[in-house]
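Standup notes
- DV: blocked on the single-chain target, sequence here:
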Amino acid sequence: MLSYEIDAFSLNGTVLTPAVDGLGFANYSRDGDLVSEWRGNASLNYNIGEHNIRYVTRYIQGVKDDRFLGTANEQIDDFITQNLYYQ
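- DV (later): unblocked, structure below
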């Protein structure tokens, strides 16, 4: 994804918030979703007979929290989950 455009918000012809590219931002104070530049997942699966083991890892790149730009709290860190399943 190269950009995530959020339209300007206007009321009675007055622009209250300008259009922005929300990519890489949490967009909590805007009308958009949290959109990181990079996301990915990978999995390994092994089965033998009635046994199945699966490992899954997911990565979401951190974003800037637009509510706190210019402060020490503006960065939301990368997020990685790892799961191991057995059936």
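- Follow-up: The CA atoms of residues 8 and 18 lie 4 Å apart.
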